[in-house]
Amino acid sequence: MKLTQLMKWSGVCLAMVVMTWASTLPLMNRTVVTQGLVKNSPGTAEINSPLSAQIHRQHVHNGDQVMAGELLFELDDTVLAEQLFIAQQELLQAQSEQWHVQSLINGNPLPWTSYLQEASAAEKQRMQQRLAIEMKSINDKETQLQAEIELQSRLTGGIQQRMKSLEQAHLLLMAQHEQQSQLYQQGFLSTQGWIKSKELIVRSEAETLETVAELHASKDRTEVLKQEKAAWRSNLQSSWHHHLAELKLQIKSSSANIHQLSHQISQTQIRTPTNGTVQDIERSTPGT
After folding, report:
1. In degrees rounded to 5, what are phi and psi of residue 28?
2. Residue 228 near residue 142 (C-beta atoms within 8 A)
3. Own/partner pairs, 164-172, CB within 8 angstroms, 24+ separation
4. Residue 16 — very low, low, confident or very high, per pLDDT cuts 50/70/90?
């Protein structure tokens, strides 16, 4: 069986990859700049490219015997290869950030995931150092907040002890005043002495009330500090989980982009769909 192939292209022309057989399949709805016709009487195979790219290398010449699947020519994949490299770097960066955030949520560095196993030793060290610095900063902040809570708790404890002492002193004053009141009624204590005893009780009551207010304020302050610490930790966790969700979407998008680019690069290799002999290869620029 003799295969006749008519190809039109230029070394600088753009090409697009499609295949139709004996005009039985529709062409893709795109402008065809490079066409290759493989004639296998009575049918005709038309070989086109779905990509817009320069022809990089021709592998066949007139008279060559070709087998089905044999490489005919290659399109320049330089731009696609650069885009693929960038996409792979973006994916690695997102995966590294995902490991970082998940380690923060966990509270300890996680084992290297499969996609980070291939990272260089220098990159792994950089990731570990960054994580260690951020975790230290978080721990320092948490230690500071806890120290403020403990200090306020100790102040509250001191006020409570003072309150107990004031209550005991007030009870003693009340007992003394009761005795002095009896002495006053019996004429053994002057009015001035009785008034002075009463003033001591009033002063003690006022000091006790002030201390009660101070105690309540100190307890409230302790509770506020605890709530601030809990809110800080909650907001931190929330931001990590939100960032992690964004990273998962980014990784999914980058992975899909890499798959698409890899597929496009595979399409830069134009192969014959059938056996035969190459004849009448022609080159022309678009529109000729």
Report:
1. -65, 150
2. no
3. 166/204, 166/207, 166/208, 166/211, 167/208, 169/204, 170/201, 170/204, 170/205, 170/208
4. very low
Exposed/middle/buried for residue 66 (C-beta within 10 Å: 0-12, 13-18, 19+): buried
Neighbours of 75 (CB within 10 A): 26
Q: What is the mean pLDDT of residues 114-136?
A: 89
User: 193-229, pLDDT tens digit by residue?
Assistant: 889 989 999 999 999 999 999 999 999 999 999 999 9
Of the pLDDT bands very low, low, confident and very high (cuts 50, 70, 90), residue 5 is very low
Q: Alpha helices of 107-190 — where are they, by DSSP H?
A: 121-185
DSSP string, 202-229: HHHHHHHHHHHHHHHHHHHHHHHHHHHH
| pLDDT higher than 80, residue 15 | no
Phi-psi region at 53: left, alpha or beta (left = phi > 0; alpha = psi -120 to 50) = beta
Cα four-point dihedral sign 53, 54, 56, 62: positive
CB atoms within 10 A of CB 189: 17
Residue 14 has pLDDT above 70, yes or no: no
DSSP annotation of 73: E
Structure tokens at 174: 């009340």
pLDDT recorded at residue 58 = 85
First vs last Cα of the chain: how many Å apart?
A: 31
- At position 96, the amino acid (one-letter code) is S
pLDDT score, position 274: 79
